[in-house]
Write a structure and sequence with these properties.
There is one protein chain. The protein folds into two domains: 20-244 and 282-323, 3-Layer(aba) Sandwich (Rossmann fold), CATH 3.40.50; 245-280, no CATH class. The chain has 349 residues and is an alpha/beta fold. Helices cover 35% and strands 17% of the residues. It has 13 helices and eleven strands. The protein has helices at residues 2-15, 38-52, 71-74, 87-97, 109-115, 117-126, 171-177, 191-203, 225-228, 230-236, 286-293, 316-331, 336-340; strands spanning 59-63, 78-81, 102-108, 130-136, 182-187, 208-213, 237-240, 247-248, 254-259, 262-267, 303-310. An eight-stranded mixed β-sheet has the order 2-1-3-4-6-5-11-7, sandwiched between helices. The protein has a three-stranded antiparallel β-sheet with strand order 8-9-10. α2 (38-52) crosses α8 and α7 (171-177) packs antiparallel against α11 (286-293).
């Protein structure tokens, strides 16, 4: 009787292991440039993993090509360093074949939004239960500094010596337009905020899309400095908190209100406006999420950071499993050999 109880306890322990951060740190030397924002993203991801309560052998990190794509080497989980732009497609296949696994995609603004853009939008619209981390440094870092799909208009690089003519992608707006059910933005320089966003993304059932502003200190240093430096951050960033008014500024004395459907900055010090006039964030308001995402490149408005949208919708993988079970109940398990030899078959001499 005692032995049986011990075995039960052991089995329960194996199912719910107690991990520490070190359990998710692999033995590989981390090979990013000193000072790269990727280090922070890796550290915060490793820090949240023990809190998720998921066994390491049930976690898979999939990456494409780029600086960010070395990520799977540094996570002590299963990993797949795939090919350029195809991480989302491969991750989709993994999740559909093994719905019991927790799947993460690590990609960059080039890998995910250029060659991999088509795969990304269809992953989002299908709402497959995977988590996408898009490292946005607004440059191609691995190939030494060409402009990327998120580089600003007029960006001077090795491939655009007279300035880029491309208007940049807005990752949050693109994800919302593709029908994403969870869209968020965070900063590599804000560890606590990043941890909270990553935990929410992991808990979401369906595709979660997290854009992370990541500094490339070699080829695009300071691209987001106005949103990360202490001297300017308070006046240039508005943090999105569900159910709370959009306040910002060093003295929390400015806010965002809607003028029709257009957001505008108002002062709370002039006596003309109060907190009651401000826009209150609602993570489940799809229309509001588009309005907030559209603030991204408006120089007159602060940059929204946080969770734009979090809504519930059946995931593709769950619905597929439901169809499979229905088909089994209706037609039985099936026989692959019988299927291949059914219908019109012939022998070629």
């Amino acid at each position: 009787m005692g032995e049986s109880a011990d075995q039960t306890t052991k089995a329960a322990t194996m199912q719910s292991p107690k991990y520490t951060v070190k359990d998710f740190q692999s033995d590989q030397d981390v090979r990013w440039c000193p000072g790269c924002g990727d280090y922070s993203i890796l550290a915060q991801t490793q820090r949240i993993m023990p809190d998720l309560g998921i066994p390491r052998h049930k976690i898979v990190f999939v990456s494409g090509i780029g600086c960010s794509s070395r990520f799977p080497y540094y996570m002590e989980t299963y990993g797949f360093h795939s090919i350029h732009g195809r991480a989302t497609a491969i991750a989709s296949g993994i999740k559909l074949a093994r719905p019991d696994l927790t799947v993460w995609v690590v990609t960059g603004d080039g890998d995910g939004m250029s060659i991999g853009g088509n795969h990304l939008i269809h992953l989002l619209r299908r709402n497959i239960d995977v988590n996408v981390l898009l490292f946005n440094n607004q440059i191609y870092g691995l190939t030494k500094g060409q402009y990327s799909p998120t580089s600003e208009l007029g960006k001077v690089t090795k491939s655009t010596p007279y300035g880029s003519l491309d208007y940049p992608f807005n990752p949050a707006a693109l994800a919302l337009g593709a029908g994403a059910t969870f869209v968020a933005r965070t900063l590599d320089s804000d560890p606590k905020h990043m941890q909270s966003v990553l935990k929410r993304a992991a808990q979401h059932k369906g595709t979660s899309f997290v854009e992370i502003y990541q500094n490339c200190n070699v080829f695009n240093d300071g691209a987001f400095s106005q949103f990360t430096e202490k001297e300017t951050k308070d006046d240039t960033v508005v943090f999105l908190e569900h159910g709370k008014p959009l306040l910002f500024g060093k003295g929390r004395d400015k806010g965002i209100r809607l003028n029709g459907f257009s957001p505008e900055v108002v002062s709370l010090k002039d006596g003309k406006h109060s907190v009651n006039d401000l826009l209150v964030h609602d993570e489940q308001d799809t229309t509001l999420s588009f309005i907030l995402a559209d603030m991204t490149y408006n120089p007159k408005l602060p940059r929204p950071v946080g969770i734009f949208l979090s809504i519930a919708r059946p995931s593709y993988d769950a619905e597929m499993q439901r169809q499979i079970e229905f088909a089994k109940q209706k037609r039985g398990e099936g026989d692959i050999a019988k299927l291949l030899n059914s219908g019109e078959t012939w022998i070629i001499q």
